[in-house]
Design a protein that fits this description.
By secondary structure, the chain is α/β, with parallel strands linked by helices. It has one domain (2-175). Helix content is 40%, strand content 15%. Strands 2-3-1-4-5 form a 5-stranded parallel β-sheet, sandwiched between helices. A two-stranded antiparallel ribbon has the order 6-7. Helix 1 packs across helix 6 and helix 2 packs antiparallel against helix 3 (65-75).
Length: 176
């Protein structure tokens, strides 16, 4: 199970699955602004994804997206419902890997390439958002410690605050 995190990854993962015999794709499309509605969409998408029996199943939404959405709002000083999202969303366990669009903006880049990557460096990979790059990344996935359960990982949103001005280095790319 692989989450492809980007502003919009649906078309890239669908094209990849159409051209690769060992890849299935589940696309949720754009998430609603409400964390509770986003949780329902996310849960349904991951419910469909776990039914695939191919080597790789790529999904265009993080199962923790509702929590990350509220974490981002809190970090940006907006009204948020982080505690409700953590407590009530009952997120499924995270995927085995995250492929993260190398152009993902702040604050999401801090969560994925900062926080999640610090928890399991080999399981969070920056990638260009096109089918060939995603395919290449799938073929060269590493390994590392697994992520905590979905509930435990969601709870880490309470305490994670990125350092101001810290650049996240990923290979040849710098994310600010």
């Amino acid at each position: 199970m692989v989450a492809v995190v980007a502003e919009s990854a649906a078309s890239a993962i669908v094209r990849l699955a159409e051209n690769a015999a060992n890849v299935a794709a589940e696309a949720s499309g754009d998430l609603p602004d409400s964390w509770s509605e986003a949780a329902a969409v996310t849960r349904a998408t991951w419910g469909r994804a776990v039914r695939h029996r191919l080597i790789y199943t790529v999904v265009d939404v993080d199962p923790l997206a509702p929590v990350v959405m509220e974490w981002s709002r809190r970090l940006m000083g907006q009204e948020h419902e982080l505690e409700l999202a953590i407590g009530a969303s009952n997120p499924p366990d995270p995927p085995d890997f995250y492929l993260v669009d190398e152009h993902l903006g702040h604050p999401l880049v801090d969560w994925y390439l900062g926080h999640l990557r610090s928890l399991s460096p080999g399981r969070v990979v920056p990638v260009r958002l096109d089918p060939d790059s995603i395919s290449h990344a799938l073929g060269s996935l590493g390994y590392g410690p697994p992520f905590p359960s979905g509930k435990d990982l969601a709870a880490t949103a309470r305490d994670f605050v990125p350092l101001p001005g810290l650049s996240i280095m990923t290979g040849e790319h710098t994310f600010d």
